[in-house]
Sequence to fold (219 residues):
Amino acid sequence: MYTIAVTNQKGGVGKTTIAMQVAAALSRRHRVLLIDTDPQRSTQWWAGNVARPLPFDYAGPQQPSVLARLPLLKVEYDFVFVDTPGSLEETRTLELVLDAADYALVPMTPEPLAVEPTMRTIHRLIEPRHLRYAIVLNKVDPRIPDQRDTWTHRLDADWGYPRTAETLRLYKAHADAPILGELVTAMPDNRRTAGLIGEVTRLALEVSTHVAATSAGVW
Ligand SMILES: Nc1ncnc2c1ncn2[C@@H]1O[C@H](COP(=O)(O)OP(=O)(O)OP(=O)(O)O)[C@@H](O)[C@H]1O
Ligand SMILES: [Mg+2]
Fold:
């Protein structure tokens, strides 16, 4: 069982979106549990709009102490995703989640205001725990020339942070998904959604491979 914290102290970068959609994508082939530790309860509202059943097991909202009790559960999971709060007031929650995690997935938007909080999250909370992690660039706007290249170059060459090869574009379908109760496993596959479904599916495969490889020490 691998526990993946989806985390960034910057709000609105896509933690909830990525936790829900990547958990759904991995549930096609794996046993997945999603835990929400954010008092904002965004996943609860989303999950409430999904036509039942959810493709993964769902526990939210929870205190982070629930993570320590997971091994006692009778059910065994391949992946446990933890959605986390995006505010500085919740640092203690984040610390407890990261203490229990095997891997941190750090969504980041390609905007200057996201840089400092993302770096702070990595330097103060993730790296001191020697936790493997990767940034995933989210909300890349295809209408802005070179945005993806500029930001991947910054991450790779200027700052040297590990990142996923897959990046997620800005899609209205992502923004609509919580209210429509849509997850990649049950979205109509059409022009509105095809790009999104492909990106999330590839990201899920990449993350699952990373997590398993890093835990075996072969990153
Ligand atoms: N790739 C995307 N394209 C379009 N909209 C997106 C994308 N990713 C996220 N969004 C939208 O951006 C907003 C913020 O995303 P989300 O709630 O996932 O971020 P968050 O990091 O969980 O925020 P918080 O810190 O408040 O918990 C939401 O309205 C979401 O639907
Ligand atoms: Mg959220």
User: Anything to note?
Assistant: The pocket of magnesium ion (ligand 2) is lined by residues 15-16, 38, 42, 83, 86 (CB under 6 Å). The mean pLDDT is 95. Strands lie at 2-6, 32-36, 57-59, 79-83, 103-108, 132-137. The first helix runs from residue 15 to 26.
